[in-house]
Amino acid sequence: MRLYHHPQSTNARRAVMTAVQLGTPVELVMIDFAKGEHRQPQFLKLNPNHKVPVLDDDGFVLWESQAIMQYLCDLTPGQRLYPGAIRARADVNRWLFWSAQHFGPAVAILNWEHWVKGRLGLGGADPDEVKRGEALVREFAAILDTHLAGREWICAGGLSLADLSLGACLTYTERSHLPLGGFGHLGRWLAQVQTLEAWKTTEPA
Ligand SMILES: N[C@@H](CCC(=O)N[C@@H](CS)C(=O)NCC(=O)O)C(=O)O
User: Fold this and answer.
1) Which residue among 3, 37, 51 is best mutated to probe the pocket of ligand 1, counting the most ligand atoms within 8 A of its Cβ?
2) Distance (Å, rounded) from C-alpha 188 to C-alpha 199?
3) CA–CA separation, 201 vs 196, rounded Å?
4) Are both 110 and 180 inside the same structural domain?
5) Where would a tag sit more exposed on the chain, N or C end, judged by fewer CB atoms within 10 A?
6) Range of the domain at 65
7) pLDDT score, position 205
8) Which of 12, 13, 68 is nearest to 203 (CA)?
């Protein structure tokens, strides 16, 4: 099974973290953005969206990080990251959609403004965008923080895909100046995510 990724991609990271946590052997194939490999015809055949991650399981090609996480779990008998019971699974799904739809995009504004843009030679941070990103991150972080009060992990039943997905969004807390001060429950939870082998072995250089 091949997993196309980039070591600095937080979207790819959540898929790689899932494989590590499950103990699923995957061959990691790096797509070099600097060389434009994501826009080459052979990669576009795998993912016309020119994005990582992409999973290729013996010719079955899957893109979208949350879908890859779910697929890897579904292939793994006895796994506990993605429960089978309907309500427990729905709860994990809720946070995965929230991660993809709300939390991730809010954090991505600050990743882009504070360092990705500069690295691509596209200039410095736009103060209005930074303000917008900070307001959104604060709004969503407050929701996660309140939810985590008195909870060890995001979903009942222990560590789940929800923790890996949302944890991966928070890869660049310092570099992206994420305004997370004052969210104590979130901070405690993130510190716990950071102790996972799956986190440590996927940390970008
Ligand atoms: N919704 C997608 C987002 C994937 C995504 O945006 N990947 C970025 C890296 S973090 C990418 O490959 N960007 C290259 C591009 O858009 O050209 C997912 O969750 O897999």
Assistant:
1) 51
2) 15
3) 9
4) yes
5) C
6) 2-74
7) 86
8) 13
Residues 97-152 pLDDT 10s: 999 999 999 999 999 999 999 999 999 999 999 999 999 999 999 999 999 999 99
Ligand 1 pocket test: pick from 3, 4, 10, 11 the residue with the most ligand atoms within 8 Å of its Cβ: 11
Cβ < 6 A, ligand 1 pocket: 9-11, 38, 50-53, 64-65
Tell whether the model's pLDDT for residue 92 goes beyond 90.
Answer: yes
Number of domains in the chain: 2
Nearest CA to ligand 1 atom 16: 51
Q: Which residue has its alpha carbon closest to ligand 1 atom 6?
A: 51
Q: Could you please report the per-residue DSSP string of 38-91?
A: GGSHHHHHH-TT--S-EEEETTEEEESHHHHHHHHHHTSTT--SS--SHHHHHH
**Is-cis flag, bond preceding 53, omega within 30?**
yes
3-state secondary structure 167-182: HHHCCCCCCCCCCCCC
Q: Indicate whether 70 and 91 sit together in one domain.
A: no
Distance between CA atoms of residues 103 and 8, nearest Å: 18
CA 108 to ligand 1 center in whole angstroms: 11
